[in-house]
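debug: dumping io for the single-chain case to check the tokenizer round-trip. Nothing else runs in this session.
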Amino acid sequence: MKTTLKLFVLAGIAFLVACGPSAKELAEKARIQDSIKADSISKVEAEAAAAAAAEQARIEAEAAAAAEQAKADSIAAAEAAAKTKGGKKK
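debug: decoded output
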């Protein structure tokens, strides 16, 4: 009788352990996974925004350099034209 009772108790414990996690544990696991996904998505979005800002800054810097070069070229052309005109008048 004692052996049979022990067998049933062990079978009951094994059955409870084999049932798996509770609904609360599953909900907590799902919440953690959602949080990890949200963190990953926000990190990727932040990296993309930083890359876009860097690209925009590079484009603006190139445009400013081109404008400065055009200004320098225009000044040089005007000085060359002034020298040419000054040489013809003398």
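debug: round-trip ok. The CA atoms of residues 82 and 88 lie 10 Å apart.
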